[in-house]
């Protein structure tokens, strides 16, 4: 596969995963295939073995946000996972489903972020070789985070696209299994277990779930499970204004490649929604709300005020979208869930976050 075939920009546009529930491009608008894909995805979610390596995270009431917004706000604390993000769920599910023969060859990916740490831990747990290609500019703290979980780190290329090309070449050369960060049915199934937990943890009135979107692994899994069981609950994606690949794909009715992608919320800086992801999202996601950098920073502050925890920008997007939704709808007494998806933020960037949050005024 050549670099150009992925239409790589400064951000990520990933190749589709190797395994397939059903070919995502053939699902289209066929109601029968759509239902089959939904059922297959739910079946895979329910058998995802995530608790070998991740925890059932709390669904925590956010008292201050609840009071300020006049709606009950619950935070799904995925920032409390062992790798400080939900990504371990999908990475582990994918790797654990490889055959013994494939596992013996090892796994490879390219990532400077949460997928790298998730895959490293998944491979360590299963005792298999993991090679993670990271751009040479990756902060030492992240390189260390991956190495400390036993993965081999190869620093290659100035930017992400070169690291990805190198990882794919390695997969080809050494027979390693490339583990995609989102565009894969097993990865989607693992992330979907977040939805299972939300419905189990809160069985009463639940009006909407807000989910940050990068390549769409998390939202595809959550939307599939939630819509299968509780179609009355709205599933709402949240993207940065300058990185809205799902919103644009839904508007166009097909996947589009963003020519340029903002990188402040680095976990969701993706140029094109995944193919398997879009096949689910186009039918089961109700809408996408976009938020600015300042709104994201203000949400980070709101989460801190309620939990005394810091999330990363991508991890705060859902709360930012939830606040915007309440302001737009002027709703009251609804039950709203936001997925706090991760906490891998460089301490040094907190000064910038605080400054930008200040521009949004106080939430209380
Ligand atoms: C913290 C965080 N939130 C959200 C996302 C978006 O997840 P997805 O790519 O499955 O949409 C990511 C992806 O890496 C992430 O690291």
Automatic annotation (TrEMBL):
Originating species: Halopseudomonas laoshanensis
EC number: 4.3.1.19
Keyword Oxidoreductase (UniProt): no
Ranges for domain Tryptophan synthase beta chain-like PALP: 56-342
Cofactors (names): pyridoxal 5'-phosphate
Function field: Catalyzes the anaerobic formation of alpha-ketobutyrate and ammonia from threonine in a two-step reaction. The first step involved a dehydration of threonine and a production of enamine intermediates (aminocrotonate), which tautomerizes to its imine form (iminobutyrate). Both intermediates are unstable and short-lived. The second step is the nonenzymatic hydrolysis of the enamine/imine intermediates to form 2-ketobutyrate and free ammonia. In the low water environment of the cell, the second step is accelerated by RidA.
Pathway: Amino-acid biosynthesis; L-isoleucine biosynthesis; 2-oxobutanoate from L-threonine: step 1/1
Protein name (database record): L-threonine dehydratase
Gene3D superfamilies associated with the record: 3.40.50.1100
Family the UniProt entry places it in: Belongs to the serine/threonine dehydratase family.
Subunit field text: Homotetramer.
């Amino acid at each position: 596969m050549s670099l150009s075939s992925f239409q790589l920009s400064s951000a990520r546009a990933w190749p589709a995963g190797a395994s397939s529930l059903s070919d995502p491009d053939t699902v289209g608008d066929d109601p029968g295939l759509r239902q089959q894909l939904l059922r297959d995805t739910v079946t895979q979610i329910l058998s995802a073995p995530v608790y070998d390596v991740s925890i059932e995270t709390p669904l925590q009431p956010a008292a201050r946000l609840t009071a300020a917004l006049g709606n009950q706000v619950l935070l799904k604390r995925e920032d409390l996972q062992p790798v400080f993000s939900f990504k371990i769920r999908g990475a582990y599910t994918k790797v654990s489903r490889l055959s013994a023969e494939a596992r013996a060859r090892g796994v490879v990916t390219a990532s400077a972020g949460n997928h790298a740490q998730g895959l490293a831990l998944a491979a360590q747990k299963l005792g298999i070789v993991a090679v993670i290609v990271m751009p040479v500019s990756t902060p030492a703290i992240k390189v260390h985070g991956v190495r400390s979980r036993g993965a081999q780190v190869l620093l290659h290329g100035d930017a992400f696209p070169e690291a990805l090309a190198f990882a794919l070449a390695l997969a080809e050369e050494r027979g390693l299994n490339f583990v995609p960060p989102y565009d894969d049915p097993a990865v989607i199934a693992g992330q979907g277990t977040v939805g299972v937990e939300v419905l189990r943890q809160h069985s009463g009135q639940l009006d909407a779930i807000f989910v940050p979107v990068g390549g769409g692994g998390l939202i595809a899994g959550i939307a599939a499970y939630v819509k299968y069981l509780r179609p009355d609950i709205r599933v709402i994606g949240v993207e940065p204004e300058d990185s809205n690949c799902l919103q644009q794909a839904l508007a166009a009715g097909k996947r589009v490649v963003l020519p340029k992608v903002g990188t402040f919320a680095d976990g969701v800086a993706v140029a094109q929604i995944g193919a398997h992801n879009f096949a689910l999202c186009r039918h089961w996601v109700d809408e996408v709300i976009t938020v600015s950098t300042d709104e994201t920073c203000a949400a980070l502050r709101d989460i801190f005020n309620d939990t005394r925890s810091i999330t990363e920008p991508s991890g705060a997007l859902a709360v930012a979208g939830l606040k915007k939704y309440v302001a737009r709808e002027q709703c009251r007494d609804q039950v709203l869930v936001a997925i706090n998806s991760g906490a891998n933020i460089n301490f040094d960037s907190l000064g910038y976050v605080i400054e930008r949050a200040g521009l949004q005024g106080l939430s209380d």
